[in-house]
Each structure stands twice: as C-alpha cells, then as structure tokens.
Amino acid sequence: MALHRLLALMTTMHLAGVLCNVESTFDEITPQIYEPSWMYKCVPDEGCQRSEHPRPTLSDNSTSAFFDSLDVCRIVCGRFGGIWPKPVTAALSSQTVKIHPNYLRYDLLNVPAETRELLVEMTQVISNNLLAECGGHVTEVVDTQVVVIIVVKTAITSLNWNTDEQYMLDVQTRGGEVSVHIEAETIYGARHGLETFSQLISSDKRDFSDVEHCGLVLVSGAKIRDRPIYKHRGLVLDTSRHFIPMVDIKRTIDGMATTKMNVFHWHATDSHSFPLEASRVPQFTRYGAYSGSEMYTTEEIRELIHYAKVRGIRVVIEIDAPAHSGNGWQWGREYGLGDLAVCVNAYPWRHLCIEPPCGQLNPANPNMYRVLRNLYQDVADLLNSPPLLHMGGDEVYFGCWNSSQEIISYMKDQGYDTTEEGFMKLWGEFHNKALQIWDEEISAKGLDPQPVMLWSSQLTQAQRISQHLDKERYIIEVWEPLNSPLLTQLLRLGYRTVSVPKDIWYLDHGFWGRTVYSNWRRMYAHTLPRDEGVLGGEVAMWTEYCDAQALDTRVWPRAAAVAERLWSDPTSTVYSAEPRLQRLRTRLIARGLRPDAMSPAWCSQHDSKCL
Amino acid sequence: MWLQAICIYTVFIIIGCGIPTAAEEHSLWRWTCENNRCTKIRNEPENKEPVLSLEACKMFCDDYGLLWPKPTIETNLGNFLSKINMNTIDIQITKQGKSDDLLTAAADRFKTLVSSSVPKGFSAKAAGKSVTVYLVNDNPYIREFSLDMDESYELYISSTSSDKVNATIRGNSFFGVRHGLETLSQLIVYDDIRNNLLIVRDVTIKDRPVYPYRGILLDTARNFYSIESIKRTIDAMAAVKLNTFHWHITDSQSFPLVLQKRPNLSKLGAYSPTKVYTKQDIREVVAYGLERGVRVLPEFDAPAHVGEGWQDTGLTVCFKAEPWTKFCVEPPCGQLNPTKEELYDYLEDIYVEMAEAFESTDMFHMGGDEVSERCWNSSEEIQNFMIQNRWNLDKSSFLKLWNYFQKNAQDRAYKAFGKRLPLILWTSTLTDYTHVEKFLDKDEYIIQVWTTGADPQIQGLLQKGYRLIMSNYDALYFDCGFGAWVGSGNNWCSPYIGWQKVYGNSPAVMALSYRDQILGGEVALWSEQSDPATLDGRLWPRAAAFAERMWAEPSTAWQDAEHRMLHVRERLVRMGIQAESLEPEWCYQNQGLCYG
Fold first, then answer.
1. Which residues of A touch B528 (CB under 8 A)?
2. Which of A69, B3, B378, B383 is the most buried (most CB within 10 A)?
3. Looking at A395, A429, A480, A544, which residue is catalytic?
4. CB within 8 A of A7, min separation 6: which ones?
C-alpha cells in the first residue's frame, strides 16, 4: 500500500516536470532592456552583496563566490547557509549541484512499516515545497539522480513532549549522483531532516533573465547534526475574537512546519464567539458562531489535526474556562438547564470582565459540568493520542460571579465566604472538577491521565498555587511580562511551564492601548531559562485587531524569530541571523505566505549594510 | 398572496408588516434599531416585527446610513429598502461628450461593486425590482484634473412602480458623477437572512468635498510594488472618494523607472529587471486612475534621495558613503551634484519622459527633502564651485546652492511639461517660513508639510500665503509603529497610529483662519518595511478614516463614525482589499457595546 503510494507520488512529480518543459521561450514579451549588470558575491563575514559583474579578466578562482541568484548565494554563504532555524552543527559545501524533482527519489526501505504511510505524506509536502521554489514549474531539467535514504529507528507516531526530534542529515555528490542520508529516532525527526534538506535548495532564478526560467540548485555536500533545545515550540492563535478560515490556519501551520515549530495552540473559543462545532452539543455553534459560515465542522477539525501531524505539529485545543466563556453558553434556560454561564454580554462591563463581551461559567450549576463533559468528550474524540487539553483559566472576575445570587448561595452551602479567598476556592474547585471530568473521559478511551495546560492567573500565584493546582497535573503557561518573578517562582515550586512573556512575544502588541510592538530582533534576543521545568515557549496571536486579512503579516516573519530561539537557543547575535532570516522570508513567500517586509529590499541585497 | 409579496419585497422600517416568511424562521438572530444603534436579539417564533439583517438595520440606524465618506450638504435616506435584481441594472448616459468613455468605465465599475457587496459564500437571488440609473453630466467635455475641478453631485432615488426603481445622478463633471455612483453603490446592501440585494428607496443626497486634494503617497523605491497592487490601491481610493495617488517612484535604494533616453538608471538601479515600471505600465496606471477620478501625481525626489541607478553618471556625491549616519538619514546615502551642468540635461530627460508617462497630471512633485550639507561638503568639486561663487561653506551658502539647483530644475520641469504647472516640495530647511520667500514663489510652489501637526511652521507658511498639503507624520505616516529596520527598538515615528487619531487629524484646526490655503492632505506609506504583502493592511482601513476627514471635515469625532467605519472596512474586504481588522467581529455585530 505504502509503496504503491510512493510510486504514485513519483508519477505525479514526473508529470509536473513534463508540463514545465513545454513552456520554454517567452523572449518576445520580456522587457528588452536588460543585460546582466550585477551578481551576488559571498563576502566572508558580510554575507551576500550585490556587486558589479566580475570582469572576464579575473581568474576562475575569484569568480567562484559570485552567484546569479541571491537565494543561491544565501544557501552557501555563511556557516549555516540558508537554514532556519539554525542547526546544532553544520558543515556545508560552498559548491552546488543542479537538480530536478523528476529525478528525486525517496528510499523508505529502512523505516518501520507502520510509519511509512505518514512518512510518504511528509515527503509529498517536501516535494511540493521544492516545486514551490519555482512557482510550481521547474523548467530547467537536469538528470542528476538524487536519492534520499531515510532511516527511522522507532515506530512511534505519537507526538508529545517526549517525542525524539533529533536527526542527522548528510548530503554527498559523487559523479552524476547525489545521495542524501537522513537518520532519526522517529518520523518527526526525519521530517525535520527533510525540512532542512529542502532548505539546502534554492531556485536559481536570476535577477536578469527570462522570467520563465527556473531551475533548482542544491548544496552539493552537507553534514548536519541537529536537535531542538526546547520541547514545546508553539504558536497560539485566537479564532474567537475573529473567525480565521481553515485555509488561513493551514497556511499558518505551513509556516510553523518550515520553522520546525511543533505545537499549534488553538485558542478556539472565547466569550466573543464559539466557532468550534461539538457534535454532542450543537447549541455551542448555533448560539455562539458569528454566522453559519464562520464555524469549524468536526470533519474540518479532524482534517486540520492530521494536516498538522504530517507537518510534525501537535494541535492543542484550548477551551478557555471558567472566564472567557459567554456566547455559545447562553441557551441553558431555554433548554431547562438553568444558567450555564453568568453575566453573559452584561453591561456595564468594567467590573465584570477584562473586555466586552463578558461571561463566565456558572460553577453553581451541575448542568454546566454536564455540558462541559459533553464538550470534553468531543474534544477527546478529535485529538490525537495522547490528547493535550488547554483549560484556559485566565482572567476570572469575581465581580461577575458575585453578581449572581445563585453562585453566592452555592458558596454559602459549600462554606466559602464571599471574600477573595472564598472565590479562589470556588475557582480552584472548578478546575479540579473539570480535570476530573477530563480524566474520566480519556480513561474511558483507555488512556492514562494526561497533564493539562492552564494560563497563569491570580490562582497560580506562588503563595497560592499549591493549594489549588497539583504540579503533577497542570502545566502553567506563564504570560506575565518579563519583569514578573512568577516564572522563576513556579520553577522553584516544581511546576512545569511554557513561557509567553506578553511584552515580548505577543504579536498583537503595538496596535492598541499602550502596548509596544516587538520587532523580530527583540523577539529573537529574548532567552528563556534553561531549566527542566521550562518545556518551551509560544508566540501569541490574539485577534481583537487582526483577522485573516492581516494574519500572515502579523505572524511572519516574527514567529520565525521565536522558532529559532526555541529550537537552537543561539548565543550568536541577532545581526548574524538576519541574512538567514531574509532567506527564510523568500522561502515563506514561495510557499504561499505573505510575511511582512523586514527592511528595504536594498538591505536584503546588501547583507549587513543596514546595521 | 399579493400582500405577502409586498412584505417580502419591502423591508418596512417604521411600521412592520410582520408576516414571517419561511426564510426568516431559519434565522436565529435579528437586529433592531434602538437608541441609534443596532441591537442583536433572538428571533423568537412569536416575533411579529420585521426581521432585519445587520446591514439593513444599520442603513437606517444612523443619519448617514452606511455611507462613507458622509455627504456634506444634504442626506435624506427615507425609510424603505426595496429588493432588487442585480441582473437588471440599466445605466443610461444622457448627455454626450468627450468624457463618455470614462463614464462608461465608471458604470462598469459600479456593476462590479454591486456584485462585490454580496459577501463571500453567499449568492443573491435574481429576483426583485429592476434598477435604472440615469447619469446626467452637465459638462461632459471635461476630463482634466485640476485643483478647482468640480466634484459635486446630487443623487436621487425613487420607486416609480411596483417593479422599478430609478436613480438619477447629476454632476458638473465626470468626476462628480463618478462619486455619485460610488455613493449609490453604498446604498445597496446585502440581506444575508433572505439572500437578497436591497436598495434604499427614497433618497436625496447633495454632496461635495471640503478639500480639493485628497491623496495617498506610495513609495515604490524602498520596496517594489507590482502594477496590480497599485491598481488595487486605486480601486480602494476610488471607493472612499480619494483623488490623488502620489507616486514616490524613485529613491536612493532603487530606481525602477525605465527611461528610453537614460536606460542605465533603471538598468543599474532597479532591484531586478522585472521590478521596473515602463512608460506603458505607468500609462496603464494613469488611465486606470482617471477612470476612477484619481490623478496619478509623479514625484521625482531631488537633490537628495538619489543613489542607485546613478552610479555610472558621475553626477552624484557620497553615494553609499559610510558611516551613513554622517551623510544621510538612512542607508544608502547619495545626493545629486548641483554643480554639474550635465545634471540638468539628465533631469530634463527624466522630466520629459515622466510628462509623457504621467500624461494626465496637472502638477509635479519635485521632492526636495532631507538634503545633507555634510554630503555636499564632502565633495571637493562642490567646495570649489562654492568658493568660485564667493560663497562660504556655511549653512546659508548651502541653501544658496540648493536654491541654485532648484531654480535650474524648475526651469527644466516647465520646459519638459510644456507649461508652468504647480510644483510641490516637501517641507525642509529651504521651506523654513523665516526665509522661504527668498527661494520659492508662493504662486509657483505648493508646500507639503510632513512635520507634526503642532509645528509652528504651518502657521508661519500660511501667514506668508503659501498653499499647503498636510501630511503631518504624527497622524498620517502609516509606516509608523513596528520594529526599527536600522538599529534596535521600534522605528523612528512609533507608535502605530490608530484610525481614531487619523480621523481626528483636522487641517481646519491647524489652519485656523487660513483654511482656504489648505488644499487638503495626504497619507504617506513609506515602504522601508512594507511591500505588496503588507500594502493593503498598512493603508486600509485607516486611509478611509482619512478620506472622510478630507471629504467632509466633520465637526464630530471618531466615536460618531465608528459603526460606519467598521462597515467600510467590511466593504473593502469584499472588494478584495486585505484591510486590517479594527475590532472583534462581535463588536461589529453588537453595535455600541465595545466602548472604552
């Protein structure tokens, strides 16, 4: 079955090549103005420089560092060429060899049979990315055989924090043949190796040439050993403040795969809207989606989760609770279940929530927990094993609960007074009940209890957290600003954490209130503690002021800066990273993303001249 | 049966004729206008009121409906919406003249706009009244831009029979009639409950702009923009009645303008051979703009802001000089050498070809910003020239040198364009109000202000009689915010400017008693950190906020415009413009509940 697919893949690649060959010359319609007047020169310590065309009088030796294409210059210039994120060690040849996808073959004989099907899908993604380097048409055909031998040692296909992502990649060119050797413990390591392999390749499209010409060029020799520093390299996307269509989410996943990020944290719901279809509770979307077309069906969610998996990315679904819940929960009374949430869309909002519309789940109503159980069942059905749920847990407003007579009398019955500590108990009780429900539901699927994620909050403050939240069960996502001691305190208490310092890694900052925009350099320069308890970090795209229209330019290329921080945790400077990031940017564009500009194009044609 | 038909066809706002139809029962939500805002409520089965979609509700819940920019003289929208059939729109051009082709193009655009008012994923039923639009252009022979062109129009809509709606647009020029068509397109909304297009039925609008110059500047030198992305920008400009696309086409970083007589400039200076603008490209943009009432204004920035492209001419100084911080405001440096006679022949050739390419422009922008004395002073040749002229090497002498350049360039510009057309210059040390009249004649030059709105230069220049275009950077530079691209931290004019500030930026307030000397304003997108990928988001919808300020100079603040503003953003998106989002969609659906 798997081999059959492999053959099919090779056939399609072949067809694509044949189609391209037909379109050969378009001389008549190209602007007649140009003769080559410049090339790109790889200058040691400076990078690629747009330079005068070398005179023919110069010896062959001195012209070897000149390239027609900036992208080709980038893949061989500098120790790490055009690879992003930077690998642990890399030795790259300064020579290149022309290749064509028609003559690229993947040898999967040395991978466990049960992983082969997934790996074939992974190679398809890589092959498509190579075609994309030339806009889908590689017109220059060379018959150099490229064989990519992949060795995977284990049959593991699950993704979690223990997944081994390391890989080694060797490229050798002998005679008319290129052999590529990728070895990894898991297919996810192999996928990263394939991604790096694709980053050793550029189109040789020249600045001064027939527009239709495009060939692929590969670094002719490479020896790369690589593994990530942090296990959790994520991006959180909010699809509640604005609905983000699936196609845009998938494109974001493509960018994450390119930069070896591995967690798509889906902030799927909030008080504003509930776009996530739950088959057991159709009311969520019926009452909570912005419109019938602005929701994610179960089928689409399943497809997305698989799409991400093929790209080495785990999807974490966040159901933010007990706060940040409102629209989608307002139908309880109508169905005889009482108030599932309180102060939904209540006004004036100032004392009831952080931003309108307000809404918090009603912990006094047992029916709320029943509905929540149904929702968790649906989420557990969707997620790959082992499932990771993010329970939200941020920005609970006691004023909201305090506005409900039902909740106040419930608290009295429980022996909680209506002081801050009383409300804390109520809040802690909610999380523990929710966790118990989640445990029960995944144990019904035959799975062991899994850790869940929770945002930092008043409840997670150092002096309080241990009374309410078990450190074995909760992973705390700390979003406090840099100057907050919370992260260090939680590490000292033995909690596992994911770090998202809001003043550095929030992508929405700089467009509202007094927030300050973080440029990629600032995002890159921030380092996390090297501590067992720091699983990694995330970059956050909250969408109050952003929808699909601006998504790409907000996220890219800045998320890539965080991706390298988390994968490589480099000690080298921001400036030394810039040429590689410029190459990454053109790569993202080739793959269909719309990254923001980093500088005038002049600066990318003159590395290190705009410092 | 007949009664029911009327109820479906006419959304009755004041008194409902509430017989819910099958379609309405499917809708869980409806909107109702309470206290001048549309409230989202459950559509209960026992509801007897008419079920309004959000857009239908908004149309009558504000004095200006969903119009943007708001009309200035009279706006009466009546109380009724009629269902129309998009396929039966007929446009009649009543008077004949040499602008007929433009009017025909505007009519085609109107039809495209109507079809784009249907949101993605929906399709309108092909049923409803037919629409006839009469275009009455009282001066059909005018097709030239000028600072005193008449952009006013009147628009009337009425329903003459049960199956017909008539709209009449009357204007004193193509430009006015065209604006009337934009307004008409904004009076057609989509009912997403029943999948119908609706038109406002009883309308009287009289409208004209407050300022004659309403522009957007795009810098295509720091990063290159495709012709397609420029056209898209002009489309969006036309939708909000902006009328000038100021093309900052060259700069130190690149020279994408292809010139037949001086081919080396773009050959050496373009980012790549495909990243160029040929005469044919520019003419295409100019024609595209004309059909949309948008003048395409060329800028040739000099004597600073040159570099790439000029390297083989020997006419520049301090090109790519390092450290750049000493000689210019950003890398790479470069300035023209005004002492070279040959330079002016070069300039004339450039101007001649610009005049040919930008064929319909009535003005010319000569740049003139950020000249560095130190750059000029680094050239021995220039020093010698100044000594021969018995000038010192002090500040005032360099102003003389600059003036020498400007006078020569001005003569060549007049010669190239074949007329003494109005010239525009950026504010600079040359335009300082304490001495500007020594260098620049107020009847020949318009000054474009880019310092802050509180700069005393504004009053100083106005008192001396200069006409101004306002581009004060603290409100109208849309590149502000974001990270720095040279050095660390954020860029020089951070923070990001929200649409509220753009909307509040009133030239009338800055001009006080000299308001008549304000020709208008211009939003500037300098492109160090943007390219076609970011273009739409940087400009839109903020440039729409600016457009209403320029068109209407409203006495009200942004709060009164917020709901219309959220809608114009949705409209731009439906037109294919990747405009930024201003607020969560929840705020769009729940008017008035996202206050601060």
1. 597, 599-600
2. A69
3. A395
4. none
Whether residue A463 has pLDDT greater than 50? yes
Contacts of A506 in chain B (CB under 8 A): none
Longest dimension (CA), chain A: 94
Annotation says B370 is catalytic: yes
Alpha-carbon distances of A93 from A7, A19, A143, A181, rounded to whole Å = 31, 32, 21, 16
Is residue B142 within 8 Å of residue B149, measured between CB atoms?
yes
Between CA A51 and CA B33 the distance in angstroms is 65
- pLDDT tens-digit series, residues B384-412: 999 999 998 899 999 999 999 999 999 99
Is the pLDDT assigned to residue B332 strictly greater than 70? yes
Angle (nearest 5°) at CA A453 between A452 and A454: 125
Partner B contacted by A519 (CB < 8 A): yes
CB contact under 8 A, A544 and B485: no
| Sign of the alpha-carbon torsion through A357, A361, A367, A371 | positive
Q: Do A549 and B495 touch (CB under 8 A)?
A: no
Min Cα separation A352/chain B (Å):
14
d(Cα A66, Cα A511) in Å, to the nearest integer? 42
- What's the pLDDT at B11? 44
**Dist. CA B61–CA B590, nearest whole Å:** 13
d(CA A168, CA A90): 10
DSSP state of A29: G
Chain B positions in Cβ-Cβ contact with residue A208 (cut-off 8 Å): 272-273
Count CB-CB contacts under 10 A for residue A607.
27
Instruction: Say yes or no: A26 contacts chain B, CB-CB below 8 A.
Output: no
Q: Do B530 and A597 touch (CB under 8 A)?
A: yes
A34 touches chain B (CB under 8 A): yes
SS3 B33: strand
- Cβ neighbours of residue B102 closer than 8 Å, sequence gap 6 or more: B143, B174, B178, B290, B291
Collapse the DSSP code of A547 into the 3-class scheme (helix H, G, I; strand E, B; otherwise coil) and give the result.
Answer: coil
Verify whether the Cβ–Cβ distance A31 to B276 is below 8 Å. yes
Provide DSSP, B112-123: HHHHHTSPTT--
Q: Evaluate if residue B559 carries a pLDDT over 60.
A: yes
Q: Residue type for A504, please? A: I
Burial environment of residue A18 by CB neighbours within 10 A (0 to 12, 13 to 18, 19 or more): exposed
Q: Which amino acid is at A393?
A: G
Q: Does A247 touch chain B (CB under 8 A)?
A: no
> Is B321 strand, coil or helix?
coil
Catalytic residue among B284, B370, B528, B580: B370
Q: For residue A158, give both structure tokens.
A: 């699950």
Q: pLDDT tens digit string along B424-463?
A: 999 999 999 999 999 999 999 999 999 999 999 999 999 9
Q: How far apart are CA B560 and CA A387, in angstroms?
A: 48
Q: Which residue of A has its CA nearest to B579?
A: A549
Do A102 and A144 meet the contact criterion of CB atoms below 8 Å apart?
no
Domains of chain A (ranges, CATH numbers)? 79-226 (3.30.379.10), 232-581 (3.20.20.80)
List of chain B residues whose C-beta atoms are within 8 Å of the C-beta of residue A349: 593
